[in-house]
Amino acid sequence: MRRSPALVLVVAGAFLTTLAPLIRFYVSAQVVQAPLNRYERVRLEAPNASLFDMAKLKLRTGVTLVADSTIRGDVKANGGNGRVAVWDSSTTITEKDTGKQVQLQAYRMAFDRRTGLLENCCGVNVGGDVNVKMFGYGLLFPIANVHKRDYPFYDTTTRRTLPMRFSGEENLGGMKTYRFIQEVPLVKVESMNVKLPGDMLGLGKDAYPQRVDRYFEAVNTQWVDPRTGVPVKQEQKVTQSLRTRDGLGKLIVADADMVTVPEDQKKLADLSNESALAIGWTRIYGPVLALVVGLGLLGTGSAMVLLRRRDLPPPPTAPRGPDGRFGGVATGPPPGTRRRAHPAAGSARARRQQRPQRRPRRLGRS
Predict the structure, then answer these.
(1) What does the alpha-carbon distance between residue 11 and residue 80 come to, in Å, rounded to a whole number?
(2) Per-residue pLDDT tens for 292-322?
(3) Which of 140, 219, 320, 321 is buried most, with the most CB atoms less than 10 Å from its CB?
(4) Which is nearest to 308 in space by CA: 53, 1, 9?
């Protein structure tokens, strides 16, 4: 059976018009979310850091520190809950010249794949401590929904949620980014059962050795692609110090300004551009294109149907018979003639009609 091209266009147009909201609200919800299985390596460098050598009891300057950060997604850790992603992060800080390890950091975060908000489940921990409680955001900003406002971000060093404040827009390699700054105030991160000479703590040569604790403060800056929520550049200005219990003496043991290396910035920007393209096709380009093409096909098919009906020849005129009726030559009586009804069989009238008629007598004969 041949199908009319107009009918095909109408059906295709109806399908695409129906597909447009499906792409926007269903397909988009499946695409715009963080992946379960993620592997990413990012390097930060601090080219002119200061580091205290505990073996030589001497502050070294001009040291280049390298922080290699690796993120791995654990697809089985969520217990089958596809709404939650679980990512493990480890950061190794080493001296670039000697390769000597300075510090190792590790933590696990679980978060909602669509909003980016942290979840306290699936064995989340910081340095093996599973008693931590994480709130706010951690590894990502809101997925494809970043605005010019402040966001609560969890800091793994102090184990506190602190505001990440919007600081303005900035262009990085042709990409418009939002700059956010988080200030981590001076906070004690470790109690130490160690005494240091008073002169090392700036208390003078005659000061007695003092017990000290480790303190931490930092300024974290992130440049985020607002289309995706992916940080494409990071800067961490970190200061660690040893301070006396009374706060009078202190010793700087680490002072570094760590920034994402240019090649990894480009890699993160490429990843964000790919994600933004997929988000754009499911949220804007795909639905609009399907709707426009669908309406166009519907209009074209409908117009073809109307034009085809207009061009059809008029129906043939049926011939009239002598009786004035359509459909052929009449065999009955002419119009206006009253038909004579036949008597029913066996009736008195029928019997009279069947009797032979008598011949009339002739007059004049005897």
Answers:
(1) 40
(2) 887 887 788 777 777 766 655 666 665 665 6
(3) 140
(4) 9
10 Å CB burial of residue 211 (0-12, 13-18, 19+) is middle
Residue in this structure with the two tokens 């036949």, named with its chain if needed: 342
pLDDT tens-place string over residues 47-88? 999 998 877 778 889 999 999 999 999 999 999 999 999 999
Burial class (CB in 10 A: 0-12, 13-18, 19+), 147: exposed
